[in-house]
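User: For my dataset I need records formatted as: sequence, then structure tokens, nothing else. Please produce one.
Assistant:
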Amino acid sequence: MSAGAPPVKPQVKALNCPNCGAALVVRSFNTAVTIVCEGCHSILDAKDPNLQILQRFKVATDEDKPLIPLGTRGKIRGVDYEAIGFERRTIHVDGIPYSWHEYVLFNPYKGFRYLTEYNGHWNDVSTLKALPEFLPYASPPKVKYLGETYRHFQTAKAGTTFVLGEFPWQVRVGEASDVTDYVSPPRVISSEMTGGEVTWSMGEYLAGKDVWKAFRLPGSPPEAIGVYENQPSPLSAETRNIWVAFAAFLVVLVVMMIGFDLAARNEQVFTGYYKYNSNQRGEASFVTDDFEVKGHTSNVEVTTSTDVNNRWIYLNYALINEATGQAFDFGREVSYYHGYDSDGAWSEGKANDSVAIPKVPPGRYYLRVEPEGDPGYGMTYYTVTVKRDVPQYSFYAIALGALLLPAILLTWRSLSFEHLRWAESDHPPINLGGNE
């Protein structure tokens, strides 16, 4: 070939099976090591000019068929590949077989790469050019590759149970390998040891619709079932973003709270000391001395402090504007109970209470008070304190809850996704219920 001449395009080679005479098409040229006859399922030595038969295997009538027909061409990462081989691998867990499919893809200039499929989950797989680094003392075991840490997911013995097409190695039905997977979604690093030889590869998760688009396959891909070992969580980015947003809003909320707290006057405008005898007959209601609420329209907080002990008092209040007669009516019950039972000491309620009345205009006011209490309990002493422009934190608590709730719910969903992922691994999450 002269210098600068374009490379010669490889040609597909046609052969015949020495066992059944069926036509064979070798698409990977001199790189094929074994080829499987689709007619009689003989495994042939592609390096032998006479295509020596290496193995014959029986095929069940309901045997798997490739979802990507052999000979189909598609574009993976911008490169055209052709599907030339197909195999089924099977592991057994607690006596139950689990199978996945592997597709051999070939490009005459780029070589081989692979696609795997399990229950509708796909991975784009290529052989590693360097060995990963094992992290000492990690539990569970971890490896590091190109700065990314991968956690051990599963180790199992995988057997080849069906093959079709061409392979760049001597494939055998019944051959078993020790396969170990380490995951860092959306990637998985796998080691495969066969007869003392170890091969490392990396897979990256693909959606079925992307595979169908790449190979222009008709119809729709099979629906993905369950959560796969390196399937990226659809919620991880959302969870991270919502917590970032929560942190930003929390800062704004704290700044607002500090600002309003510093601006609030929190000014005491009245205090009165009273007593109520529940055994006394007749009208117990009264009005307090008047007091002035100054400044702008603001909230007014009424605090009741009592000496109730295993009893209650109810106070029906009215805050009345002396000039206009406008009344703000509200009732408050103050109760406090305590004692001992089989579980030990207990208490309920408290001996004081506060309530805020919003948007009270400035002016002179007084309180009308109507007390009620447990008959027969005698005297109750209580103090009534009135403040204006008091900082209220309930709004901030509600706002914090409104911000926190969606973040917690999304995090819980994300954790549930991870729980399903690791439930299928050699390191399942701890079952807090104690059941297997």
